[in-house]
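Hello Y.,

Per our agreement to keep a running log of every chain we model this quarter, I'm adding this entry. I've kept the format consistent with earlier entries: sequence first, then predicted structure.
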Amino acid sequence: MAVRVLLLGAAAALFILLPAGGSSVMPGGIAPVDATSPEVLQAVHAAVEHFNRRSNETFLSKMRRVLNAKEQVVTGMLYHLRVKLGTTNCRKTAPNIDLESCQFHPSPALAKTRICKFQIWDRPWMGPMQVTLQNCRIV
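Predicted structure for the entry above:
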């Protein structure tokens, strides 16, 4: 009888801990997320901005495509992204550039395509998103 009550209690606790909708992702777990969601696109924007600030390239890069997006509930949200970047025709030194208006560079000699892995930590109560990992390779 005691074992049965214990099992029922454990099952009830598990049911209470699961989020509404039946998702089995627990806090700290990593789960796929829609790459077109506003939150993911905001994280991509932060990652690309970070990449451009830190690169030694003459031209800015922008996103070609989100290849993979996952989220992890931590103290806030940690986004794990794999993004394809392309070199644009906009120089980093030009003032007041709207990256969205930049075109991908037409010259094969200057155009570079990169696959980047980013981790972006979003804690809205702490200020802007933080890029905690950037690892890019030219393809």
